[in-house]
Structure formats: C-alpha cells, structure tokens
Amino acid sequence: MRNMSFALTTAQVLDQSKDVTRRMGWLKLKPGDMIQPVKKCMGLKPGEKIEKLGPPVRVVSVHREPLRAITDDAKKYGRHECVREGFGHLSPCQFVNMFCDTHKGCTPDTVITRIEFAYEAMP
Question: What is the three-class DSSP state of 71?
Fold first, then answer.
C-alpha cells in the first residue's frame, strides 16, 4: 500500500470532508486500491516519522483530465470539485492557480490524475 501526502489538506482528511484529490503522476492507480493518507512523506528531516491521517482509504475512481477542466465548466463541475478537494474557499480559477504554484512545471493544460476515494469504516 502506498502512502499519499495530504500536507495542504490535513484537516479536511481528518474530518473526512475531502474525497477527491488531483495528482501529477499516479498513473498505475486503479479503483479498489488502498492508499494510506499521511501528513507528509517526502522531505522528512532526520528523526521525523511519517504521520498517518487515520486508516487507509479506498480508491473509487481514477481518470486523467487537463487541470483546466474545472475552469472549463466552473459553475457545474469546477465549484463542486473545489469543495470535494477541500478548497471550498477557492474559486475554480484560484484552485488551478494554487495547484500550478505548488506543482513544478504544471500549467492549466497539464493532464493530471483525478482520484476519488472513500473512507473505510474503522475496524
């Protein structure tokens, strides 16, 4: 099972209000796969440990789309996606700009991986 960092949306994962994430890469992911949400998994300093954010989540759907898809249909698709991403306070345009600013080499035309996931019941 792979770890997935949610450094920018830790609170939204903890309160389970986030169920969609967009990523560069993650091309081999498929529905049914399990992912362990973590606060941070790269760039850990010596002695730092990976901090799990609850139990694993199950991937519901995966597809590739240009990042700008959420601004192409901002009212119907984009606004709803910003909320599902945990950024309900941002407009679709602001979300795209933030994503590009935090992902080196990304532009609105970059094809990214949209991942929908579900929280599993606690064992």
Answer: helix
